[in-house]
Amino acid sequence: MQREAVTVWNRCLQVIQENISDQSFRTWFEPIVPLRLNGSELTIQVPSQFFYEWLEENYIHLLRKALDFAIGRHGQLQYSIIVDKGDESSKPLTVNVPTTKSPQTAKPDNVDADILKSPFEMKDLDSLQLDSYLNPAYTFDNFVEGDCNRLGRSAGFAIAQNPGTTAFNPLMIYGGVGLGKTHLVQAVGNYIKNNNQDKFVLYVSSEKFTTQFINAIRTDSLRDFMSFYMQVDVLIIDDVQFWAGKEKTQETFFHIFNHLHGAKKQIIMTSDRAPRDLQGMQDRLQSRFKQGLTADLQQPDLETRTAIIQKKLQAEGIFIEHNVIEYLAHSINTNVRELEGVIVSLMAQASLNRREIDLDLARSTLRNIVIDSDKEVTIDTVQDVVADHFSITVADLKSKSRKKEAVFPRQIAMFLAKEQTELSLKSIGYHFGGRDHSTVIHAIQTISDLVSNNPQIRETVEKLKASLK
After folding, report:
1. Quick one: where's region Domain I, interacts with DnaA modulators (predicted)?
2. SS (H, E, C) the chain
3. pLDDT-derived band of residue 310, with 50, 70 and 90 as boundaries?
């Protein structure tokens, strides 16, 4: 019975494909599955209620024409609609409905429904045209790979080469501010756009998507809005956490997601947290987010920070000594965006003051940028405050001297650096004459024990902390 249905449906598709664009055919007819043929009644399975309604509203005349060709005037069409129950553990329901529109209500033969309704032809849908909204500057070539982002980068590149056909669909990239989420997902989009001319890539922020959705409701063009998104080959949504609590937006995206995923179109998303931690999200949508691959971007490690600095300087055609690069890499470990911002400021300072980029300029520039005293304390500030309190020099703190008058202040400075900054033990050791991290651990433990048992030392440390604030 199904074999006969497939044969009849293939005959229908011959007529349909001759009368609509390739894009519309792939979107609205390739996902259909012929189920059975009972006499002159053909039953086809469609992915959703919206899908069924769109076919009935826009292609009923074309379907009638196809049935006349494949079965005859007495041919009838019945739909089997997949309805998601919203329960992750249960299978979708299938609801059978007969066709409700008659050929008399259809559009005239000389009017192509695709021309009238295809959102690709509509230029007034919130100014959405065939623009991918990608920043061409975001590429894989200038995305620095490291241990902190290797999984996401590898998955992104695999998708870029074979969108929609890998196991990484959807791909969810999450991480804190300034770690390169937007750069990575747009690099995927740019690669696909440049190497697959037949695929339409769209990048949109979650806020932009919501605004378009609201405007579509206001202008009574929701169907056009949904149809547009259902025809996208690669959909990239940035910052989905902003949909928290927006039930209608989530519901609309849920239907778009199901359609695209079922049609093997690629979906890529970013978030500032893991899917399981997204509050205010529908359970069924969260389960979709977890379907493919979830990869986090972490704070860049020392080696990656060094490579980012070198890459940025190379792109600008600027050479600076390695000790300056090393200083910057050890001093900034928050995120990529702040690191790049410091480099830009450093180049600007050098240009304005007409001087070479050396260690002194790097220190003063960094001190001026990370000046938010309520929040940030730099390693240089710690060393200056400790050296001043004990009437020694910063050079003494960094020296190899084992004299008591240098060792004790050095240990206190290491202790405060660990407590007051976010630097790693390795970076703290670097700033104290290139000492090993085990030396830093010993210093921290020594001062910690003294603070617990010696009121005088505790008072000194508290005084130094107050100076840092």
Report:
1. 1-90
2. CHHHHHHHHHHHHHHHHHHCCHHHHHHHCCCCEEEEEECCEEEEEECCHHHHHHHHHHCHHHHHHHHHHHCCCCCEEEEEEEECCCCCCCCCEEEEEECCCCHHHCCCCCCCHHHHHCHHHCCCCCCCCCCCCCCCCCCCCCCCCCCCCHHHHHHHHHHHHCCCCCCCCCEEEEECCCCCHHHHHHHHHHHHHHHCCCCCEEEEEHHHHHHHHHHHHHCCCHHHHHHHHHCCCEEEEECHHHHCCCHHHHHHHHHHHHHHHHCCCEEEEEECCCHHHCCCCCHHHHHHHCCCEEEEECCCCHHHHHHHHHHHHHHHCCCCCHHHHHHHHHHCCCCHHHHHHHHHHHHHHHHHHCCCCCHHHHHHHHHHHCCCCCCCCCHHHHHHHHHHHCCCCHHHHHCCCCCHHHHHHHHHHHHHHHHHCCCCHHHHHHHCCCCCHHHHHHHHHHHHHHHHHCHHHHHHHHHHHHHHC
3. confident
